[in-house]
Amino acid sequence: MLRQISRLFEQHLRKPDVLCRYGGEEFALLLPETTGERALVVAEKLRQIVSSFPFPGIPRPVTFSAGIADFPKHGRSRDEVVQAADAALYSAKQAGRDRVCAAGEPRGASV
Questions:
Q1: What pLDDT digit, counting tens, does each position of 27-71 carry?
Q2: How far apart are CA 18 and CA 92, in angstroms?
Q3: pLDDT for residue 109
Q4: Residue 48: CA atoms inside 13 Å, Cβ hemisphere, count?
Q5: Active-site residue flag, 26
Q6: Considering 10, 25, 37, 105, which one is annotated as catalytic?
Q7: Residue 80 CB: number of other CB atoms within 10 A?
Q8: Exposed (0-12), middle (13-18) or buried (19+): which is 54, by Cβ within 10 Å?
Q9: Beta-bridge partners for 66
Q10: How many other CB atoms sit within 10 Å of the CB of residue 18?
Q11: Is 29 domain-assigned?
């Protein structure tokens, strides 16, 4: 199933976009020159594509959750951006799964 999902992603991404398996059942997408707002649109499109794809031998829809973080808004280093995206992913899971969430306000932002 992970191979098929990665093929679906690759079919719907641009040439400069980078798809990586990040661990277990997690993927990371790098979308160069893409704002966080546009990344949300891309992730939601991919979520819908995966949920409507008829995976052989899987009797129900496959779903996924995604967390979006924007460089440099949510971090100035790779680790900070990944941490922000991971926090957004867990927000998506806590909100009921099968959804896309963006990272919150950047660290140090005044409220």
A1: 999 999 999 899 999 999 999 999 999 999 999 999 999 999 999
A2: 22
A3: 40
A4: 7
A5: no
A6: 25
A7: 16
A8: exposed
A9: 100
A10: 10
A11: yes
